[in-house]
Amino acid sequence: MTGSSETTAPDRTETPMTELFFTILISAMTVAGLGLVAAAFIAMGRSS
Questions:
Q1: Residues whose CB is less than 8 angstroms from the CB of residue 12 and which lie 6 or more positions away in sequence, other chains included
Q2: Rounded CA separation 27/34 (Å)
Q3: Domain tally for the chain?
Q4: pTM across the whole model
């Protein structure tokens, strides 16, 4: 675990924009997923 983290650290500092892009992408996907789940629960609540 320690060796892998040391090798990936320089790559992250070299490409901060890429890391930021993936962070935003993952967070957006998570929010979208939670939104879909919430919409599904609301739809189930209204239909029943």
A1: 19
A2: 11
A3: 1
A4: 0.51
